[in-house]
Design goal:
By secondary structure, the chain is of the alpha+beta class. The protein has four helices and ten strands. Pfam families: PAS_5 (PF07310).
Length: 220
């Protein structure tokens, strides 16, 4: 994997919405994750120190892969739970998404875990009355203390502050697009070991700096 600055510059320079980190929370969490992992594919959960990212915690979450293939929330920050008007712990990550996109959301999260590939999602949340909120979601791979890659450290950040925010809960998320930092390396079973380079997925893509951008989600 190239030096952190190469990935970071690629994310920062690209002018396309689907290939640029727009949220300060997203940028700072990605930078922290990149620093902690060093030259490895992913850091361990016990290396993530909440005190180091204290200001980001309300918008941070951790997902864990389950034996049945599902991926659920181990914890979610107060701002995220407030957006949905509910406690998200133990809920499936895919359950947050529009019905027709739940399988795709689960597959994306599974790719992050399986291939140790950070993903940036552009999405919008919808309320029961049709209000829309642009959000940015970062998914970065994380290992359990024994080194097994089975978790995701992520952030979900609103990109605006409408007057109804936290008064009208979001009913679901709608995926607009996603992109992955390149080059990617296949995840080994133990943190710190690097596998061979692989493609992010089988969907059509276009290049944008150091990102591979996959079109998907809502069609206008």
């Amino acid at each position: 994997m190239p030096p952190a600055i190469s990935i970071w510059d690629g994310l920062r320079r690209n002018n396309d919405r689907s290939g640029k980190m727009r949220s300060r929370t997203t940028m700072e969490l990605f930078q922290y994750w990149n620093e902690v992992r060093g030259g490895r594919d992913l850091p361990r959960r016990d290396e993530i120190q909440p005190a180091d990212i204290r200001s980001l915690l309300p918008n941070v979450f951790i997902l864990q892969a389950q034996a049945d293939g599902g991926i659920h929330f181990r914890l979610a920050g107060t701002h995220i739970c407030g957006l949905f008007g509910d406690e998200l712990r133990h809920r499936q990550f895919s359950a947050l998404w529009l019905g027709g996109q739940q399988e795709e959301a689960a597959r994306i999260a599974g790719q992050v875990v399986k291939r140790c590939m950070p993903m940036l999602l552009a999405a919008s949340g919808a309320t029961a009355t049709g209000d829309r909120l642009e959000v940015e979601i970062l998914l970065t791979p994380l290992a359990s203390p024994d080194g097994t890659g089975d978790r995701i450290l992520g952030a979900l950040s609103p990109l605006s502050r409408p007057i109804w925010l936290h008064m009208k809960p979001l009913q679901h998320l709608v995926l607009e697009s996603r992109c992955a930092a390149l080059p990617a390396s296949e995840c080994s079973t133990t943190a710190g070991l690097t596998g061979s380079r692989i493609d992010a997925c089988d969907r059509p893509f276009r290049m944008a700096q150091h990102l591979r951008v996959f079109e998907g989600g809502r069609r206008n």
